Amino acid sequence: MSGPACCNNPPAAFSGEQSGQIKTIASINSYVSGNPDSNLAVLLISDVYGYEAPKLRYELWQEQKPAVEFAKPVIHALKEKGISKVGAAGFCWGAKVVVELAKDADIQAAALLHPTFVTLDDIKGVKVPVAILGAEFDQISPPELVKQFEDALQAKPEVDHFVKIYPGVSHGWTVRYRDEDVTAGKRAQEAHQDLVDWFAKCLQKAHSA
């Protein structure tokens, strides 16, 4: 289901330490990290390379699911374990999964990073707060399309949103940048911090509501 542009920059090795472990949730192998006592969770739904991509494993809370029909049981299982609010971030192909979850309000906050297959109609159907992080050089979701997404969200004042284009980077940069590419690395760290801030804002707000 992925196109050539999704696969022309495979994940590179990562020099840092991984921060979690593989667990089975709703019969799905998931890479999990973070505070085990938290009642908030964020699913990270990977690109076509899956959760084996080393840079994806470096992030805060992580659980990779390949499609909507796998993600929903995981969300249900998390809530059975005491998780009260769930956010989801989708990378590339995973953004399509997340936007479908956001349409049905299965999650409380969403983020789409260099999305693939996401359409304007998808964005119009979103019911929960959503962030869209795009690349300046992206043939799949170019800045012009991301701007259309932003315009559609601005027409939905009931849906909080955050939209940003990161200069000097291309599709997949957040988890597939090369360590020697200083610019891409800095932009990836910027995007990761924006992602953490977004979910902290949205999930804490939903939790206190």
Features:
209 residues, alpha/beta, two-stranded antiparallel ribbon, 38% helix, globular, hydrolase activity, Dienelactone hydrolase domain-containing protein, Dienelactn_hydro
Structure, described:
- It comes from Ambrosia artemisiifolia (Common ragweed).
- InterPro entries: AB_hydrolase_fold, Dienelactn_hydro.
- This is Dienelactone hydrolase domain-containing protein.
- GO terms for molecular function: hydrolase activity.
- Residues 68-201 form the Dienelactone hydrolase domain.
- The chain contains 8 helices and 7 strands.
- The longest helix has 27 residues, at 182-208.
- The chain has a 5-stranded parallel sheet, sandwiched between helices. The protein has a two-stranded antiparallel sheet with strand order 1-2.
- 38% of the residues lie in helices and 23% in strands.
- With 209 residues, it is an alpha/beta fold.
- It has helices at residues 4-7, 54-57, 68-80, 93-103, 120-124, 143-154, 173-176, 182-208; strands at residues 20-25, 28-33, 40-45, 85-91, 109-113, 130-137, 161-170.
- The N and C termini lie far apart (38 Å).
